[in-house]
Amino acid sequence: MKFRRPIFQSFLSLFHRADSAFNHVFTEKGNFLYYLGALPVILLFVLLITGLFMFIYYNMSVHQSYESVKYMTESALLGRFIRNLHRYAADAMMFFVLLHMARMLFEEKFQNHRTLAWVSGLIILGFMLVQGLTGYILPLDANARFVMEKTSELLAGLKVFGDTLPRSFSSPALLGKWIMWVVLIVHLFIPLLFILLLFVHLLRVSRAKLFPPRKLTLAFLGVLILYTLVFPINMVGKAEAEKMPELLQPDWFYLFFAAIFETRYAWIAWSTMAAGFLLLMAMPWLVKKREIVTAGVIAEKCTGCGLCAIDCPYQAMHMVERASLIGNANQTHHKYLVSIDTDLCSGCGICAGSCTYDAITHVKPGATQAEPDWSEAKDKWVTLVCQGRAHSLGLSAEGGALRAYEAGTVLAITPCTGKLGVSETEKIRAGGAKGLIVGACPEGDCWYREGNRWLMDRIELKRKPNFRRVAAEFPILGFRFNGQQKHSFVSELQQIVRSQNTLPNRLFSLLKPSNWARSFSVGTFVFALAVWVFYLGSSGRFGAIEASKSTALLRLDFFYQSEKETCSPEQIPADAREQAIKRMAGLVKLENLTPEARERILQQAADSVASKYCSRARRDLDIIVRIDGQEQSRRTFRPAGFQRDGITYVMMKVHTVPGPHEVQVVVHERDTGSTGKEISFAERMEFSPAEVKLLDYEPNQAKLFRRTLQMPQKNETGKD
């Protein structure tokens, strides 16, 4: 199987092109594309700090929430800046999380030991969306009005939240203080949940990079603050229940569903999105897994130094007392032995590079250790590349025997360059090789996280076991390059082989494109493109939804409990009712009961028979809306539940022109066995431009009525 599948490689190449430019201009530590997972952590702290500032001023009262946010924005010191920074930090967090997810997907980092991180990351993404939606509801402004209505439609459409919660969001007129408490608690609780999910996300990772380098962090925060100052966001008006919902400040990172809800085929879009999310969740099991040759240990050679366990990037190695594994600690004077968790092992081989005693092996079950014949490299340069760089060079990523390569060198492929250690290097030197040329991933882009970094530290004598033990006259020249720098590496390799000048003995540098101006242009373009996409998603008016002044809206929004479908006599056996009555008579003497009690017992017998032989389904609702005598809409609504035995959610929107109109609504319970129950409503209404008239249902009186759309007001005590 190829190291990278073409469908993923084609998208990953876009990241590599940008990487090459950013590495050249800003160095690897300044390339933000290597820290797409760490930048959201910085933004989480920004959100916590700015959120606490806003919480000091916020009043969760339905009547006062908008005024409290308005006061903070317009009167409090730095209030507008803090609120805008909070908004843009939330958008940036979603932006970078999506980029991080895309890069991990295209790099195929979602299987085997990475499955837990992939699944938990998608769960974090889902909670981020909920966090953003609750944040938009809290101010109770015009944007909140839009979000509330769409949330109500979504919750009701799912048919698993009953009727209280969806109705509370359907209109500000129905919003109570308790629901604001719920929204606020959810908004405050999810950041705490993020900490737990982040722990799970990084559970199988050693030395996780929670934070980017300091210079990159400061530069990133500076750009975010500058963007906040250049593109301030003003407050929109208060939520007006009698006005058609508007989305004046679209936020495509969290409110992307706005455009979906406004289409005729919203259910297709939602189904596609749900299927896409489930597909991403199932990727670790749907895509063919890579074969991993896990590490093994030769107990007789292990000294228990623990360097392999320290260097392991996925916590797959732990030091244990030797007696607990082999039962006899007296066989050797070494107290400890490494234990390997094969379920967490990635097969990278970094542990082998940490061992100077050849105690770590990577052999398939049932096979024997196959050592490369380094004598084939006598008087030649050895080119050693990792699987990722081999793929970039157009080579088969499968390791194994040595092969001829460019400029007469001998090529060896290893899972990760971190596998190269003192022991293997000495074998190469003993085979008579002229020197060693290493092709590695850029720092921050190692497929196994830390292999190239450990190799660099060993070459620079900063990490044990270092290359001090290797003769200084044996050159070890390492080059870091990405997937778009094949020709640069081959050119560098040819120059080294043909060079007549004295070469450095130790080197591990980044290959940079020859044209700095071109790299700067590409880097500037990519950065500007990212800012432009972020602007469209967070600050621009693209996708704004404004209420049309040339139309008004009649909205039917209520829950209805219809009667059960009529049970046909043919469905019930002839003697079923008599048998039920006999069973009742065996428990209670019917002749001793009052007529009322006897009738109740007989009805219970009839109900038990009906529940056994008749369907539990309730009747569908046919709703007809006529305006000025002309039929405008006719729809059928089905009860919730797998057996259609739940409550029916009715949501209809009928647009009309402003002005006086005669409105007639007929609600009919469809039933095959009878005419069914029917409820009628008729009233003359005056529609203003962009006005909403809400029709509701009163179950106790079994009638439709026009709900007065007024926000809750204070009572005599000054409370809502």
UniProtKB/TrEMBL annotation:
Against InterPro entries, the record matches this protein to: 4Fe4S_Fe-S-bd, 4Fe4S_Fe_S_CS, Cyt_b/b6_N, Cytb/b6-like_sf, Di-haem_cyt_TM, MvhD/FlpD
Q: What is this protein called?
A: Cytochrome b/b6 domain-containing protein
Q: Which Pfam families match?
A: Cytochrome_B, Fer4_7, FlpD
Question: Matching Gene3D superfamilies, A to Z?
Answer: 3.30.70.20, Cytochrome Bc1 Complex, Chain C
Cytochrome b/b6 N-terminal region profile domain mapped to chain residues: 1-214
Q: Name one GO biological process term.
A: respiratory electron transport chain
Which GO cellular component does the record give, naming just one? Answer: membrane
Write out the GO MF terms: electron transfer activity; iron-sulfur cluster binding; metal ion binding; oxidoreductase activity
Per UniProt, which keywords does this protein have?
Answer: Iron, Iron-sulfur, Membrane, Metal-binding, Oxidoreductase, Transmembrane, Transmembrane helix
What is the native source organism of this protein?
A: Turneriella parva (strain ATCC BAA-1111 / DSM 21527 / NCTC 11395 / H) (Leptospira parva)
**Could you tell me which residue ranges the 4Fe-4S ferredoxin-type domain spans?**
293-322, 336-365
The residue ranges crossing the membrane are 32-58, 88-106, 118-138, 178-203, 215-233, 253-280, 516-535
